[in-house]
Amino acid sequence: MSWREFYKNRWLYIMLLPGIIYFVIFKYVPMYGIVMAFQDYVPYRGIWESNWVGFKHFERFFSEPQFWMLFRNTFILALYNIIFFFPLPIIVSLMLNEVVTERFKRFVQTLIYVPHFVSWVVVVGVFYMIFTTEGGILNELIFAITGQKIAFLLEPGWFRTMIISQSIWKEVGWGTIIFLAALSGVDTQLYEAARMDGASRWRQLWHITLPAIRSTIIILLILRLGTFLDTGFEQIFLMLTSTNRDVGEVFDTYVYVKGMTQAQYSYSAAVGLFKSVIGLLLVVGANQLAKKCGEEGIY
Amino acid sequence: MKQDRTLGNRLFDYTNHTLLLLLGIVTVLPFIYITAVSFTSPAEVAKGGFILFPKEFSLAAYRYIFSTSTLLNSLWVSIYITVLGTFINLLLTTLMAYPLSRPYLRGRKYIMLGVLFTMLFSGGMIPTYFVVNSLHLTDTLWSLMIPGAISAFNLIVLKNFFQQIPDGLEDAAKIDGCNDVSILFRIVLPLSLPAMATFALFYSVAHWNSFFSAILYINDSDKWPVQVWLREIVILAQSRIGDTSIEEADIQPLTIRMAVIVFSTLPILMVYPFLQKHFAKGALLGSVKG
């Protein structure tokens, strides 16, 4: 690049600087900091002076009994998410799409978008207030009917149900936006033609509407697979109690507990790296899969 | 789309409408319930039963909140990081997105690749913590604003948005003697107001709801945002229930816990109706691949 061209665009390069500095310091320096996973990192010595220990922390992690617990918990939550959460925004947007009165449609949309904008703390807090055995409205109701209370929040068996229900309540409405956008692009002439041929509402749905959003569904499913291990860190962190760790602890929360509360920096950095690498492989793999399916992929 | 008024179609419509209405009600009912309880006198709440409208209206819970300096203080912290943080987000994102949207700028591809890679792989919590700590940002409010100053995703969407602005405008402004900075601020930004409003909303909601970065970076409870107190008062207190070693006084009455939820949610719910138009459009903006 010639000096002259650089000078001509000097303002553009100056504008780029703060952003580049930001990405280098807060995104790339931490990537370099990963080397602490291969050290016995001591904060006052820093990365330059700490001792190298090779794969010691990884060996420890893979041989811990917790490894399989974390693996199982992360995997089951991710799987539940895909089975129980993923189809719902599609179903709801198909239902909304069938509504003829624009005002009713907007009214419902306005209501179901709301929880997306509140924090996980509020969502978990609201669930706690409703499901608690100490005066929670749902337990009052169950008690009135059955004479017993259900410890939704303390019983480990309810943990996954609670997590998935919270995700559904918070994000299903918001998740419809992208499908509604895809649906709004469908040519209405197709429906008219189908009706002429005597197609029922169900047949129109099956032969016109669903194929129209097929590629959106596949792309989103693949994106979801790519972030399979991200099980919603804040939410799970908030829902964990001393009683449900056996089913609730996932890779992310384990990194926090080991690193920030027990100061095992190198070990938890190693766990974090393991998760990041698996995550990267999943994204790349899912994208390849998308391209194999004849879709565009995400990059 | 219009459908024939046959019996089957009408049945279909009734069922569909009813189900959607139910869904909408289930979504907002918890908010109504919690708001109603927070305005009800504790005596009435103790009787139990489902409260959708406060029978005995009481401001006791809110009086308690506004008499505690910790909660009011955290309200200011949250407002501060939301306003200043969103400003920083918008400024830095715009400054970086605009040059990257100029097709003739050398090196932009490599910078874009560098940005994209951060979406796929990251150093993780522990190395990031040490970076923030070594910059002496921990225990300052900057730690809640600077480490997340640019969202790679928003940057890419904004860059694509800027690319759609016709080049002719830029050329005309250059002939009139504008440099790139004044083109951005005087011509491009005024044309991008809907996009900026959307990003302002997304960034500010994220700041208002931010909670984990405060847990990670801030020990000083005077600098805790609202969400951290909410967790202390509602969630941690709740999980201590049944723990006999904790004294009763440590756990706030139900009405106060519910009022804290309302207190920390209200600002978002107040701006919601005004911004709804924008974000529906903005979300589309974000979902269109470019």
UniProtKB/TrEMBL annotation, chain A:
Organism of this sequence: Paenibacillus kyungheensis
Keyword Coiled coil carried by entry: no
Topological type in the membrane: Multi-pass membrane protein
Keywords linked to the UniProt accession: Membrane, Transmembrane, Transmembrane helix, Transport
Pfam families assigned to the protein according to its UniProt record, in alphabetical order: BPD_transp_1
Entry similarity comment: Belongs to the binding-protein-dependent transport system permease family.
The name this protein goes by in its record: ABC transporter permease subunit
Compartments (UniProt record): Cell membrane; Membrane
Any GO CC annotation of this UniProt entry: plasma membrane
Any Gene Ontology biological process: transmembrane transport
Chief location bin: membrane
Domain of life: Bacteria
Automatic annotation (TrEMBL), chain B:
Protein name: Carbohydrate ABC transporter permease
GO-annotated cellular components: plasma membrane
Signal peptide annotation: none
PROSITE patterns linked to this entry: ABC_TM1
Its membrane topology: Multi-pass membrane protein
Intracellular or extracellular location(s): Cell membrane
Keyword Transmembrane helix: yes
CDD domains, A to Z: TM_PBP2
Domain ABC transmembrane type-1 positions: 75-272
Keywords noted in UniProt: Cell membrane, Membrane, Transmembrane, Transmembrane helix, Transport
Transmembrane segments annotated in the record for this chain: 20-39, 75-98, 110-132, 144-162, 183-206, 254-275
GO biological process: transmembrane transport
Domain of life: Bacteria
Family affiliation: Belongs to the binding-protein-dependent transport system permease family.
